[in-house]
Amino acid sequence: MKKNGFSRDFTLVVIGQIISLFGNAVVRFALPLHLLNISQSPALYGLVSALAFLPLLIMSPLGGVIADRVNKRNIMVVLDFTTAGIILLFLLLSRQVNLVALILVTLILLFSISGLYQPSVQASMPFLVPEEKLVQANAMINTVSSLAGLLGPVLGGIFYSMKGIHVVLAISMVCFFLSAVMEIFIRIPFVKRETDRGAFRIIFGDLKESVRFIAKSQKVIGKVTVIIAFVNLFISSLLIIGLPVLCTQVLEFRGADPNQMYGYLSGIMAFGGIAGGISAGVLGSRIKIGDTWKLILGVALLMFPMGGILSSAVPDMGKYMVLAAGAFLMMLCATLFTVQTMSFIQIKTPGHLIGKVISWVMAIATCSQPLGQAVYGVVFEQARGQEWAIFAAAGIASIIVSLYLRKIWIAEGMLDGGTEVVSGAYK
């Protein structure tokens, strides 16, 4: 039964997410960075990152179907135990096989699991908290994710520089194991859906039903999903590929390890996410969904000082500080945008479709990210010394995206006094 506040089970989900996402942040920080260090090739780094990301697109819709038909708690437990086992296998094989191939396979498996895992977490929210608490609950989950992203890269960078990749992965493995144990005690309401269809027909039928809902019943969800895809293409991919390249190959830090400096930068970005999550929880009842285009516009405008500083005569540490400040503000705006749009989608979607619809949103929204990562990897390798131009081009493209989102909200009657979040519900 839903209560007026946050339940014990929601609290356990949050604690489990803290542990699991910390382990996830550590391993996703360390493995790609280790690849960049041993290869010194931004193009290879971008290509491997893109290939590893592709399974997420395939597994997310399947994860949505599973989330709506299997106990969500069991999904979380099994997948966290599986992740711990994959990392253990990496540690056992790392000195016996080709390391680049092993990193690629490991990242593919981890992203595949993430595609199955995240729909269960998002789909469980409406069953654990009342509707008027959804914005705050999503804000809390995003804050937890950002907190893990803050501590994971910072501590991961320190341990990676001091102890190497194996110690970092061992820490991550322990985190996933502890998270799985914690999640065993979660109780998420679940009613088994009886059916006489085979597994293939169930999957196909469920996916068809959710696609029909997005394409016909709630077209605005599809439009917003396309916007998120463009944000991932122009902005997220740039940060994922560009910042580690800048820290390890472009900027020079006297007396400081580049890997640690990138770890600190990742932590600053995560701190921006925490600030955004807290702001969403505090301001959720006063932020209009129609104003979210301004958040993307703010992120776009931040690209110009970040790119401009790279072409200036400012010392590299000064450039680093500007990049850090810009990344902090970008993550703050991006988190506010994510919380508001995810809550909007959850409220617009019937309970029996939430897992599948969320999974389609995640799959479609992220389909552009592998392409962006591959392209940015090549661009950063070919445009050495002209990195400012990459940021400027991304900024212009993102401005266009923000204006298109504004057009969508105007068409839906959600701008200038239209739909807004009131006590967690869209009126």
Q: Work out the helix count.
A: 14
- Stretches where pLDDT is under 50 for at least 5 consecutive residues are 417-427
Q: How would you describe the oligomerization state of the chains in this entry?
A: single chain
Number of strands: 2
Class by SSE composition: mainly alpha
Main β-sheet: number of strands, strand sense, barrel status?
2 strands, antiparallel
Pfam family, one: MFS_1
Subcellular location: Cell membrane
Protein name: MFS transporter
Membrane topology: Multi-pass membrane protein
Structure notes:
The protein has 427 residues and is mostly helical. It is built from 14 helices and two strands; from the N terminus they run ααααααααααααααββ. It has helices at 8-39, 42-69, 72-93, 99-128, 134-163, 165-183, 199-217, 219-250, 258-283, 292-310, 316-348, 354-366, 368-382, 387-411, and strands spanning 421-422, 425-426. Strands 1-2 form a two-stranded antiparallel ribbon. Strand 1 (421-422) and strand 2 form a beta hairpin. The protein starts with 7 loop residues before the first helix and ends with a strand. The relative contact order is 0.16.
